[in-house]
Amino acid sequence: MKILKISFALLICAIVSSCSNDDDNTEDLSGQTGELIIKFDNGVGDQDFIFDTSYSKSNNETYKLSTLKYLVSNITLTDTEGNEYMYPSEKNVFIISEANANNAGEIYVTLEDVDAADYTSISFGVGIDQGRYALGADGQGDFLTTAEAEGMMWSWATGYRFTRIDGTYSSSTVTDEALNIHMGSVGTSIDNYREVTLSLPNTVLIREDKSPQIHVVADIAKLFDGTTSVSFDDGYAQVHVDETTTGVIANNAADMFSVHHVHNE
């Protein structure tokens, strides 16, 4: 009986010790921040995107691009508890320009001082939302000057270009015709801002001693063969402010993103 009592006491001590260890191992993330790198990688189907390379569409039209840029804003992360963290709005708009890609074809967006947490999804807007536009030219901060320098603005009354694509296309009837997709919202009369939400294949761990990376792939082919397949010959070689054609491209653009992988470093 004495042995039984001793064994029971040891068991209780082991349980208490285990609980205590579990409590000690709970990570306190309060007040902690870290860096997150989002790598945007443009491709065409399963091919790397390369300027002035001919790519085929589903209707056998082909295209070559010399300019490829789009706006990304309102980057937001959702953690394992469903809590959302939005990067500060004054810094939360970026031009993803293929001309600025590294040798691997990646464009880096670095977010600093992100709240530490375990994140399971990322969302962002393609373009500029009406709330930001409503702040007026004076409310755009330094980004207005940046957008103008990058050719991502019309006049202020018309607003930002969300997507800028320049190049040529060929079909059964024409060869090397001009291709220009300069679309966005048109002031407040047409709203082509779209939001994208992507689940992460593994949890992103934001910590003060880590710099995790999310590798986002943009399939440029889906701009033309996405939710809606379009024909350059039928009016989609020049997309600017028309409500129908810009809306189709905006919807296609929202569907071209996916997360390839995540690195926790």
Question: How would you characterize the overall build of this protein?
Answer:
- The chain contains 5 helices and 14 strands.
- By secondary structure, the protein is of the alpha+beta class.
- The longest helix is centred in the N-terminal third of the chain and has 24 residues, at 2-25.
- It has one domain (32-263).
- The strands form 2 sheets. Strands 3, 4, 5, 6, 8, 9, 10, 11 and 13 form a 9-stranded mixed beta sheet that branches.
What structural category do the secondary elements indicate? alpha+beta
Unreliable residue runs: 1-25
Strand content: 35-45%
How many strand units? 14
Tally of discrete structural domains: 1
Q: Can you tell me the overall shape?
A: globular
Give the overall pLDDT as a whole number: 91
**Mind telling me the C-alpha Rg?**
24 Å
> How many helices?
5
Largest sheet: 9 strands, mixed
- Reading the helices and strands in chain order gives HEEEEEEEEHHEEEEHEHE
State the helical fraction: 10-25%
Cα(first) to Cα(last) distance is: 54 Å
Organism: Neotamlana sedimentorum
Protein name: Copper-binding protein MbnP-like domain-containing protein
InterPro entries: MbnP-like_dom
Signal peptide: 1-21
How is the secondary structure organized here?
Layout: H1 2-25, E1 33-44, E2 47-48, E3 55-56, E4 62-79, E5 84-86, E6 93-97, E7 106-115, E8 117-126, H2 130-133, H3 142-149, E9 163-170, E10 177-183, E11 194-206, E12 213-219, H4 232-236, E13 238-239, H5 243-254, E14 257-263
Parallel strand pairs: 1-12, 10-13
Antiparallel strand pairs: 1-2, 1-7, 3-4, 4-5, 4-6, 4-8, 4-9, 8-11, 9-10, 12-14
Signal peptide: 1-21
Keywords: Signal
Organism: Neotamlana sedimentorum
